[in-house]
Fold this sequence. Notes:
By secondary structure, the chain is an all-alpha fold. The protein has two domains: 4-50 and 165-232, Orthogonal Bundle (Endonuclease Iii, domain 2); 58-157, Endonuclease III, domain 1 (Orthogonal Bundle).
Amino acid sequence: xxxxxxxxxxxxxxxxxxxxxxxxxxxxxxxxxxxxxxxxxxxxxxxxxxxxxxxxxxxxxxxxxxxxxxxxxxxxxxxxxxxxxxxxxxxxxxxxxxxxxxxxxxxxxxxxxxxxxxxxxxxxxxxxxxxxxxxxxxxxxxxxxxxxxxxxxxxxxxxxxxxxxxxxxxxxxxxxxxxxxxxxxxxxxxxxxxxxxxxxxxxxxxxxxxxxxxxxxxxxxxxxxxxxxxxxxxxxxx
Length: 238
């Protein structure tokens, strides 16, 4: 089999695939069409893609997402059952003992900062929102420990609102490898993806990229030979 080489990096490329040069030169319309085809293939490949954080309601998802910063979803899912038994609602969380809270979330890393954020979260939800998680981007972002990514997770997966695109490390990596952005800042990456992906698909798009990033397009050794979108990817290797 003939091997194509990316002249800038020397990497062996899959014959017949999209080259980096073609990706850089493609029109906005062509990039949207390519994105929609990537979306369609990944949807077929991962028909049950959803958030990996175990939760029963918006409050639990919000807490779990805060804990997931610099931590695996698997570890968070090991911690949250005991946490939610002890603090099942914002009311109990608002009255938590900080030391006890720290011990419960210790294994998620940065546990002191996370415990303070959760305590502040419970207090803010009780004082400002009647103990309910607001279904609004700006109100969510004013809560302790909540940034745009966390707000997008909650709005998309708990409230079914496609307000933005969740950009975690997997989405950042795949968006750049797929040639859908050249940005490195998560909010700039999000803007690029929002311009390419139809709004009704913003939430599922993130779930699909995360699933693909975990199973195939891994950080250290992407499994390009097993990738269903390799021919649409300017980074695909032979």
